[in-house]
Amino acid sequence: MRSSGLLLLNFLFFFFSPILTGAFVGTYGINYGRIADNIPSPDKVVLLLKQAKIRNVRIYDADHTVLQAFSGTGLDLVVGLPNGFLKEMSSNADHALTWVKDNVQSFLPNTRIRGIAIGNEVLGGGDSELSGALLGAAKNVYNALKKMNLEGTVQITTAHSQAVFADSYPPSSCVFKENVVQYMKPLLDFFDQIGSPFCLNAYPFLAYTYNPTQIDINYALFKPTEGIYDAKTNLRYDNMLDAQIDAAYMALEDAGFKEMEVMITETGWASKGDSDEPAATPENARTYNYNLRKRLAKKKGTPLRPKTVLKAYIFALFNENSKPGKSSETHFGLFKPDGTISYDIGFNSLKSDSSSKAASCYVASLLISISVFLLMI
Predict the structure, then answer these.
(1) Which CATH number fits the domain 28-335, given the four candidates 2.60.40.10, 3.40.1110.10, 3.90.550.10, 3.20.20.80?
(2) Mean pLDDT value across residues 348-361
(3) Which of 178, 253, 261, 266 is catalytic?
(4) Which residue has the higher pLDDT, 108 or 361?
């Protein structure tokens, strides 16, 4: 009986310990932006994420305070190499090696860094020097990971905006812009070799805001609608996000990368905006994010790729009061700075740290009591 008790104890330890997996677990993730002076500290953010059961998290840098707060939490993190570092990393492999050592390797394995996003929305932005540096930076960072035997643990990606496409309506007509192709194709060649997905920042909110007279808002919000019909593929779309994703698949196919997966790295809806952003309301934001969460929970693909389960990082965790630009930029958060929900899509507001710790202590004490009892049998 003593040996059976030990076996059960080992099972309990295995079951309640973090299990190393790929870069994304499940279908739902969140972007943790921090361009604000009033959001909770990283340790409270960890508590909020765990309460919400959101495991996949993206940040836009490699801030050590955040990386330390995520240590031992079991949350999977994608860190960012900001655009301002790309030229340096592209031209100097030693600098890339140092960056990876300082910001990734030194925090593993306790902080579960599962990916590095090389820049953000670089291509299609009009900066040819930055566009030219993207591939070199990605290669040097990847080679640094390889020297440390981390290339199988930490995935290299970069996120693209809709600006890389020449046309995306209907989805079957989508191709990459001519001035983007010279940078995009070599990048896709490299990502295809290392098994990285095509990462897309897709915002039906922006598409509707720019074309409110031509787009049915119900189509943008996942609400019942006639949708659109793509005659070339004989496919019907009942929501805009699926159409945006399949447009990306068509552009990839046209470029010769039919098998590459499309992952959504940003999507969301603003709850407040300027006078020329009338669709930015709490009700529309709640509707979009609630329906998106339901759609992801179904673990299904798009009309063009029905067997490829869609994965998405939602933008964003918090309203960020220091972001420049239009008012909508500061109102994408699912949560307000004090940890309360911006609107109800099934998450709860941040609970007190003491109540969470008490629950954790209770579970730990229960497990220890069970273990001791089993060992005494």
Answers:
(1) 3.20.20.80
(2) 59
(3) 266
(4) 108
